[in-house]
Specification:
- With 126 residues, the protein is mainly α.
- Helix content is 46%, strand content 5%.
- The protein is built from 6 helices and 2 strands.
- A two-stranded antiparallel sheet has the order 1-2.
Length: 126
């Protein structure tokens, strides 16, 4: 397995798809990396030479923020929102949806499983 940015990418996949195993590289960025390095996109990772792997590593290190650095930056951005106590920061702090989604129904992914409230019965009519 080839190792790029601290991630083992699979040998038997085509290069653009293997690069997507790196956090911060999606389909568009993977194709851009292939264009910059002038490596054939149809080649498999196992077919790459050491020089080609080095070119890919250099382009990623020079031009893109990936893996730990990207995760750290995202975490700092969220922490900044929480610290300045803006609306989005308050939503992050309370583990509620941040981007305006409704919470009366749905939002189960963000809010967690349901917590049943005991004692809710219909009043008995006499």
């Amino acid at each position: 397995m080839a190792r790029i940015s601290g991630v083992d990418i699979p040998d038997n996949k085509r290069i653009p798809f293997a690069l997507q195993y790196i956090h911060g590289i999606g389909a568009t960025r993977a194709q851009a990396i292939m264009d910059k390095t002038r490596i054939n996109s149809d080649a498999r990772v196992r077919d790459l030479s050491d020089a080609e792997l080095t070119r890919i590593r250099e382009v990623i290190d020079r031009d893109y923020l990936v893996e730990g650095d990207l995760r750290r930056e995202v975490r700092q951005n969220v922490q900044r929102l929480i610290d300045i106590n803006c609306y989005r920061g308050q939503r992050h702090r309370r583990n509620l949806p941040v981007r305006g989604q409704r919470t009366r129904t749905n939002a189960r992914t963000r809010r967690g499983s349901r917590k049943t409230v005991a004692g809710r019965r219909k009043a008995i009519k006499k």
